[in-house]
Amino acid sequence: MQKSSYILSSLLLFGCNNATDKAEKTADSQKNEESTKRQIIDLTHEFSEETVYWVTAKEFELDVVAAGETDKGFYYAANNFATAEHGGTHIDAPIHFAKDKQFVNEIPLENLIGKAIKIDVSEKALNNPDYLISVEDFINWEKQEGMEIPKGSIVLLETGFSKYYPDKKKYLGTDQRGDEAVKLLHFPGLSPEAAQWLVENRSIHSIGIDTPSIDYGQSQYFKTHVILLSENIPAFENLTNLGKLPPKGFEVVALPMKIKGGSGAPLRIVAFVK
Known about the structure:
274 residues, alpha/beta, Glucose Oxidase, domain 1, 7-stranded mixed barrel, two-stranded antiparallel ribbon, 24% strand, globular
């Protein structure tokens, strides 16, 4: 009798373990299937001699050190590069416009990785290169989506201007360089009033835009920068492919070069869309 009970218990235990293994394998399979279904959208412009920089910033230079077969029979390639922190797809660290705030290496990863939303103002912005994204644009998004901008969101602003990149005349408003070219800049940005509204009413982690600056081209005092960066909200600039993103329900990973004491850095930013 005891032997029969032992065999029965063993069979039941084996069955339970087998069922658990199958359940775990099914769960793993579902996770793998879900991950393969996710689409990865690159929101980053390439860095090259075509990269668009602020009109007073050092442009990207690539110095080829080696590219070819060595005398030992293997291929070897290596380059040096030099560039400003702020140019191409990059991040503005809070210290860029706010004293004693975070350097780029101090920005918490939680502010750079997470759930994101996109607000599309391209219909307005493409018809007005000096368009200022307004509080009304945020409120309209919330009405259309039936929700407030979620706490801790990464907010991306689509103006449609990335379609002009890297044509400086269309993208910046001028192809001239130097201090005198600053007054010729024309591209959309976020209004200071809207930036202040976000700070006071929505607890966001970071913000990005597909133009050269979070402030519009004709800005002289960069109030939007000051408002956001003073609250340790970093800004991503010169983004691309925002038109491929839905209004909500996606995640963003935005990892800059970790420059100690940096006011900004080149950025590789991608979105994961289900």
